[in-house]
Task: structure prediction
Amino acid sequence: MRRDATRESKVTIERLRLVVQHNTHKQRETSRIMKHLLRIACVMLTTRLLSAFVVPVTPSLRSDGSTSSSATALRSRSSGNADDAPAAAAASRRRSFVRNLLVVPAAIGGLFGGGGSLSRVANAADDNAEESFASIAARANLMSKDLGSASAPPPERRTSDKTVYDFSLPVEGNQVSFANLVRQDQASAEASGSQKVKAILVVNIKQDDPVARKTIPQLISLAAKYSGKGGTGALVVVACPTDQGYYEPDTSALIRLKLASEYGYGINPATIITDKTNLLGTGAHPFWRWLESNCRTPAGLGRVEGNFEKFLIDGETGYPVRRYPRKYLPVDMTDDIEAVIAGRQLPPARANYMEEWRVAAAEAERDTYRFEKGLNVFDQ
Result:
């Protein structure tokens, strides 16, 4: 009885720890998004108002038939012509308005970092009242670039210098290097300085899982969309079945045949399936051990918790860039895949990203298809 009470208390403590982890990450993510939105708002407000107050340079006809620009006329009026004092006063008021307006975003930006550029613009407008609005607008443009670089997230810490191309996976009883598996021609890549396959999606699958009915057709659709004719495009999907987790009675060859007959998976060369591999425990495949440790969940967890966890890998660098939970649909990953293919920074995750991870964490405790040590995951 005492043993049961001790076990129950341990389970309760573990659940509380998971809840605290999720709440902490949620607060951190919300704070980061708010900072980013405030920076963008400051930049957009400043640049829009500056463009509204820039004096347009338009030619005007003089009495002698020659032309002059309105900017030149403004300088001549501001140089001390008493007849045009109202116009000079209006220009001064506009400059003062813009200067005061810049002080507010500078103060807001200073709270979250990156406000130095706004402060420099405001101080420049204050120190040199005769500076043209076009010059201030140019400074604001530079400031927006500074904020864009400052808001970029820091590079993800990696536990290994290895890349995906340092590993091999079993296919039809043979160990195949990852580069050959995805048909990445390393020789031509070294010659051209660019990889043919830009994005790789690795998924651990279980064909009898109900999630397979939605996920596998969408994986095939993504491969068809980005692989091009004959599978020569930029995306490759690699599916890895396993005996771990919910029981998998079929052999690797039978799984391959079933996926081809039921879904058409494997017909497109951009859809690849490996033999069954271990994902967890002391007998875990080195590739999966590296992948899980270098691309963790938002809660910091490395090990796979359920079937159909998806890992997006940059084909150029060979590093994983984002991980997706069990029920996160492949169709919601299109923005991330297109960013990796184009060589851009990943966009912010979609609104349902964190919610799906919370659902996955709850299912990892009670779902039929969960991975649980001692139940369906054994050390070797």
Summary: DSSP finds twelve helices and nine strands in the chain. The mean pLDDT is 75.
